[in-house]
Amino acid sequence: MSRTSDLYRLQSLDCDLTHNHNRLEEIEQILSDSAERTAAQAVLEKEEAALKDVRSAHSRAEHDVESQRSKLKHNETLLYGGGVTNPKELEDLQKENLSLRKHLSTLEDRLLEAMIELETHEESFEQAQANLELVEQRLENQHLDLTNEKKGLLDAVARLREDRGSMAGKIVPEDLSLYTKLQEEYGNRVISRLEDDSCGACGLQLARSALQEARNSNTISRCPQCGRILFAAG
Q1: What range does the domain containing 88 cover?
Q2: Confidence (pTM)
């Protein structure tokens, strides 16, 4: 193998390592991100609090109606029971009966509105509860998949590091030193593969002499424009 082909293989290993490390970071971020569940939980808690208030209002409305019906029943017992015979008292009871019936009608309308609102909030609460369950189930499945992927990536990283160590040990120290130095400037793309007699990184069309030098397996040739090490495959 040529000097540049060894470096090109080393670069490939480094790119794979970087890719796997980046994916591992993404996985860790996803696994630690509880924003979606927190949001769904917050909606459920909000709906639960609203439902509690509505249930209390509904209970009060029911109590008011029952209390008014009790008052009306008592009034009608006095009015029609025969115990009261005084015309003036009977007239007063009749007026009170009309007033009680009118107010009862108002209270029953309020109870109906409270029942409708209660049903609406019960549906909203059930939907929020179901949504939280769906989010939790989806996240559980996602986390299981990601945990398995993470394990596979960690195994791959361990193999890549071993392969990189072996490959680095085969490279001439001065070439490895140059490669490491160029990584500080260019990141992982230190070796540029020739593409149609041009530098694959910057696109410079190379002169014949530069191409011959790049194809010499015993030399390290660099692009005159971008400074990367040139690699001629085949």
Answers
A1: 34-170
A2: 0.73
